[in-house]
TrEMBL record:
One GO molecular-function entry: ornithine carbamoyltransferase activity
Family according to the record: Belongs to the aspartate/ornithine carbamoyltransferase superfamily.
Gene this protein is translated from: argF_1
Function: Reversibly catalyzes the transfer of the carbamoyl group from carbamoyl phosphate (CP) to the N(epsilon) atom of ornithine (ORN) to produce L-citrulline.
Domain of life according to the entry: Bacteria
Protein name, UniProt field: Ornithine carbamoyltransferase
Domain Aspartate/ornithine carbamoyltransferase carbamoyl-P binding: 13-163
Database matches in InterPro entries: Asp/Orn_carbamoyltranf_P-bd (IPR006132), Asp/Orn_carbamoylTrfase (IPR006130), Asp/Orn_carbamoylTrfase_sf (IPR036901), Asp_carbamoyltransf_Asp/Orn-bd (IPR006131)
Transmembrane segments: none
Length: 348
C-alpha cells in the first residue's frame, strides 16, 4: 500500500508522529552536507491551486538540495484542470483518476495545495479532491494544505516548539482566532496544529468567538488523542483566558464554517461572514495581551500575517516572536516528509 502524507494528524499514531518529529529534528542537524543525495534522481510533481511563498520555496529548495527534481504544474492554466467526475468540463478539465495514474507512471510523488475558491469554498471539497488523487496514485501524495488540514505546517510548528521549549508534554499552547480584514483563510492550520500538539502531549487551549468553532470531527479526534497521550484540550470564548499562562500563543485568523456553502454551486454568505469578523476586531495579539502569557512565552503565526490586525508590529518583530524560526522550519519539516515517503532509511 502506498504511504500518503494526506492527513497524518488524524491517521498517524501519536508514538509514530513523535518519532517522526525527533527524526525531523535530527535530519535538520545533518542538512545540507549529510543529506545532499538522499533523494537523488527522485521527481515530485507540484500542483498549486492557491498562492504560495513558503510552501513552494521550501519544498523546491529542499528537494533540489537533496538531489531531487521538482516539476511545477499549473492546475488552472498550464494543464487541463484535474477534476472529479461531477465537475468535468470538456476540453477544460481532465479526470483526477487519469491525471494521477499518468503522473504516477512518470515520477515518485505528487504534492497538491488546494483550498477555498478553487473548491467553491465548500468545506471538505478540496480534501476530497486530494483523497481522489491518493486513491488513484501509485506514488505518495503530499498534502501541501487543503481546506481541512495543513500537515506540513503543523510538523514545522511542533519542531519549533520542541526546539524552543525542550520537552513538550505538559507545556501550554494557546491556539487563538484573530481578527483580519479578510475572511478568506481556511481552518486547516489550527486543525492540524491542534491534532499535532495533543499527539506530543501538550495542554491546548483553543480560544475563539463562538462563530469560529472548528470541525466537530477534528475536535472529537483531538479529545480522543489527548486521552491517550495525557494531553488536554479546553475551549474558551475569551482571548485573555486563552492566553493566560500559555507557553506559546499561536494566533491567526480563520473563516467561520457556519457561513460557507454546503453544496457546490452555492455561495458564501459573505455579509454574515464579514459581520461576524467585524464584531470581533478586538481579538488581536499585542504586547498587553502577551503579558498574560507565561514568562518568556513565544508568539507564533504560520504567515502571511495581517500586521496591525491579527498581531501588532512590536509582537511579531519583537523578542517573543518565533515566527521566522517557524518559517525556516518549513524547509526542514518538509525535507523530513519527503525523505519519510521516498527514502525512509535515511531518517534513521
Amino acid at each position: 500500500m502506498t504511504c500518503h502524507w494526506l492527513a497524518p494528524d488524524m491517521t498517524m499514531r501519536a508514538a509514530d508522529y513523535c518519532a517522526l518529529l525527533e527524526a525531523a529534528l535530527s535530519f535538520k542537524r545533518r542538512y545540507p552536507i549529510h543529506t545532499e543525495a538522499v533523494l537523488h534522481g527522485r521527481t515530485i510533481y507540484f500542483l498549486f491551486h492557491n498562492a504560495s511563498l513558503r510552501t513552494r520555496s521550501s519544498f523546491q529548495t529542499g528537494l533540489s538540495r537533496m538531489g531531487g527534481h521538482a516539476v511545477v504544474l499549473d492546475p488552472r492554466h498550464g494543464i487541463y484542470t484535474p477534476a472529479l467526475p461531477d465537475a468535468e468540463i470538456p476540453y477544460a478539465t481532465e479526470r483526477i483518476a487519469d491525471v494521477a495514474r499518468v503522473l504516477s507512471s512518470y515520477g515518485d510523488a505528487i504534492a497538491i495545495r488546494m483550498y477555498g475558491e478553487p473548491a467553491g469554498w465548500v468545506y471538505g471539497a478540496a480534501h476530497r479532491h486530494l483523497e481522489a488523487f491518493a486513491q488513484w496514485s501509485d506514488v505518495p501524495l503530499i498534502n501541501m494544505e487543503c481546506d481541512r488540514f495543513h500537515p506540513c505546517q503543523a510538523l514545522a510548528d511542533v519542531m519549533t516548539m520542541r526546539e524552543a521549549l525542550g520537552e513538550l508534554p505538559g507545556r501550554r499552547l494557546c491556539i487563538s482566532w484573530a481578527y483580519s480584514g479578510s475572511w478568506h483563510k481556511p481552518v486547516a492550520v489550527p486543525q492540524s496544529l491542534l491534532l499535532a500538539a495533543v499527539k506530543t502531549g501538550m495542554d491546548v487551549t483553543l480560544a475563539h468567538p463562538p462563530a469560529f468553532a472548528l470541525d466537530p470531527h477534528v475536535m472529537q479526534a483531538a479529545a480522543q488523542i489527548a486521552g491517550q497521550t495525557g494531553a488536554s484540550v479546553r475551549v474558551t470564548h475569551e482571548l485573555p483566558a486563552g492566553v493566560d499562562g500559555a507557553h506559546v500563543v499561536y494566533a491567526k485568523s480563520w473563516c467561520s464554517l457556519a457561513h460557507l456553502p454546503k453544496r457546490p454551486g452555492e455561495s458564501v454568505d459573505e455579509a454574515a461572514m464579514r459581520d461576524v469578523f467585524e464584531r470581533h476586531r478586538d481579538w488581536r495579539i499585542d504586547a498587553r495581551v502577551m503579558q498574560g502569557a507565561a514568562p518568556s512565552a513565544g508568539y507564533m503565526h504560520c504567515l502571511p500575517a495581517d500586521r496591525g490586525q491579527e498581531v501588532s508590529e512590536d509582537v511579531i518583530d519583537g523578542l517573543s516572536s518565533w515566527v521566522f524560526a517557524q518559517a525556516a522550519n518549513r524547509l526542514h519539516a518538509q525535507n523530513a516528509v519527503m525523505a519519510h515517503l521516498l527514502n525512509p532509511g535515511c531518517l534513521a
